[in-house]
């Protein structure tokens, strides 16, 4: 096991290149198996979740070649083998194998997914969708058995706006007979990315990115080449880190529109932001106003940026209220920030954050974005060294983190724990 060491207090300065989006990649890789011929994914991030997904596809019989930021997936020999345990339990997104295998073979046996455990992550809406398409679903010894003689298009109204359910239903419906309409669908950019890949494979999907997605099922899908969208959460994390360290950073290879909720909030605090076509420059200021932030479904403020944002809010000169309306208990990073001297109280789905300087401490990342929050906090601390354990969570979502931060002038390194 390794730990991350940060001697903070240095403003980040320079340019950081953002890789492809984790939350797209972990849906696009399973989506590729709906095809019977080779799919090439470009702009792939070098993340542990991607490595685990590669193994999952290989266990199912696919041939996968992953070189730098490109993955070549040949799913022609893939079979729908039961996957009750093992790698499926290591990541939340293994649940996309349910929709993909169901779409291609009419059956899937997949263990209940794992992933970052900040609070329960139900999949009832995914199951409701599969059932509406004509599948029979049963939970046997912790694995879902999903079978359909023939998937048939249906109208599905999601009770909650869910990224995972929207994508999973799209995957299965892509090869159903007839038309499926998903109402109250999630609108995240990663959903558009999956629909773009599927359409390039020959699917007929319209409306991805709106609350109504229409999928006309087709008999077969073929290979294609697709480039993954930039990771808006990594980009947002570097933007927040630049502001928190009073730095001056160009975050490059981004789609600025995907970051609008964050940009607006940073501007409200007093951070200077300059948007260009594919990059955003963030210029930190000596003092910031406190603000209230509500994490919501897209295009609202992303729940994945809520934890990193909490560290920045400790740098204001007032009291901020940070609420999460997607995951009401996603606050496991708060006790660790308090260990670093932050004055934060959690009340219901909100953290009440009083501005003030932080100090170095030994802290633990308990999930991916909690880890990002602690990195940002550590970067702001001028005295001493912050030690962060639980680096394996951070590796799920931030590729080349140490190199990127060092290139921006930070003093950060990894050590054996
Ligand atoms: C809408 C939203 O912001 N989704 C985020 C969520 O996606 P993720 O796909 O994990 O979560 P969903 O979008 O599916 O869930 C949104 C909400 O719906 C609830 N729910 C979901 C599915 C279901 O079957 N039943 C149910 O009740 C969840 O508990 C949650 O409160 O976490 C990901 C990783 O942190 C983020 O990248 C996504 O942007
Ligand atoms: C928690 C996250 O990932 P996952 O949903 O894949 O566990 C995240 O991206 O912040």
Automatic annotation (TrEMBL):
Phosphoenolpyruvate binds at residues 22-23. Keywords: Cell cycle, Cell division, Cell shape, Cell wall biogenesis/degradation, Cytoplasm, Peptidoglycan synthesis, Pyruvate, Transferase. The keyword Cell membrane does not apply. The keyword Cytoplasm applies. It is found in: Cytoplasm. InterPro entries: Enolpyruvate_Tfrase_dom, Enolpyruvate_Tfrase_sf, MurA_subfamily, RNA3'P_cycl/enolpyr_Trfase_a/b, UDP_GlcNAc_COvinyl_MurA. SUPFAM superfamilies: EPT/RTPC-like. It catalyses: phosphoenolpyruvate + UDP-N-acetyl-alpha-D-glucosamine = UDP-N-acetyl-3-O-(1-carboxyvinyl)-alpha-D-glucosamine + phosphate. Its EC number is 2.5.1.7. The modification 2-(S-cysteinyl)pyruvic acid O-phosphothioketal is found at residue 116. It holds the Pfam family EPSP_synthase. The active site is at 116 (proton donor). It comes from the Bacteria. Belongs to the EPSP synthase family. MurA subfamily. This is UDP-N-acetylglucosamine 1-carboxyvinyltransferase. The gene is murA.
């Amino acid at each position: 096991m390794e730990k991350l060491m940060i001697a903070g207090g240095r403003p980040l300065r320079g340019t950081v290149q953002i890789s492809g989006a984790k939350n797209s990649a972990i849906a696009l890789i399973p989506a590729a198996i709906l095809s019977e011929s080779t799919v090439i994914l470009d702009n792939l991030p070098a993340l542990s979740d991607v490595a685990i997904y590669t193994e999952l596809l290989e266990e199912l019989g696919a041939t996968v070649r992953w070189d730098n930021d490109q993955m070549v997936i040949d799913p022609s020999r893939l079979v729908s083998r039961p996957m009750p345990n093992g790698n499926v339990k290591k990541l939340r997104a293994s649940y996309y194998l349910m929709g993909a295998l169901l779409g291609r073979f009419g059956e899937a046996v997949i263990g209940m997914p794992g992933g970052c455990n900040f609070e329960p992550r139900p999949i009832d809406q995914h199951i409701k969708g599969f059932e509406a398409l004509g599948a029979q679903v049963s939970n046997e010894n912790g694995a879902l058995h999903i079978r359909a003689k023939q998937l048939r298009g249906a109208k599905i109204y999601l009770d909650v706006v869910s990224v995972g359910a929207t994508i999973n239903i799209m995957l299965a419906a892509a090869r159903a007979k007839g038309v499926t309409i998903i109402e109250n669908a999630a609108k995240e950019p990663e959903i558009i990315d999956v629909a773009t890949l599927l359409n390039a494979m020959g699917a007929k999907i319209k409306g991805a990115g709106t609350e109504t997605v229409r999928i006309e099922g087709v008999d077969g899908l073929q290979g294609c080449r697709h480039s993954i969208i930039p990771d808006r959460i990594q980009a947002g994390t570097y933007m927040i880190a630049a502001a928190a360290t009073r730095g001056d950073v160009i975050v490059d290879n981004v789609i600025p529109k995907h970051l609008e909720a964050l940009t607006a909030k940073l501007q409200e605090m007093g951070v200077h932001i300059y948007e260009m076509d594919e990059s955003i420059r963030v210029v930190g200021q000596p003092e910031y106003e406190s603000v209230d932030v509500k994490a919501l479904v897209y295009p609202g403020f992303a729940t994945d940026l809520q934890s990193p944002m909490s560290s920045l809010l400790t740098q204001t000169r007032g009291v901020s209220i940070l609420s999460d309306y997607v995951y009401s208990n996603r606050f496991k990073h708060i006790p660790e920030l308090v260990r670093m001297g932050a004055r934060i109280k959690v009340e219901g789905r909100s953290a009440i954050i009083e501005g003030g300087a932080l100090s170095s401490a030994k802290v633990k990342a308990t999930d991916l974005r909690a880890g990002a929050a602690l990195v940002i906090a550590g970067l702001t601390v001028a005295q001493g060294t912050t030690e962060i354990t639980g680096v394996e969570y951070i590796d799920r979502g931030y590729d080349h983190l140490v190199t990127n931060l060092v290139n921006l002038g930070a003093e950060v390194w990894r050590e054996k724990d």
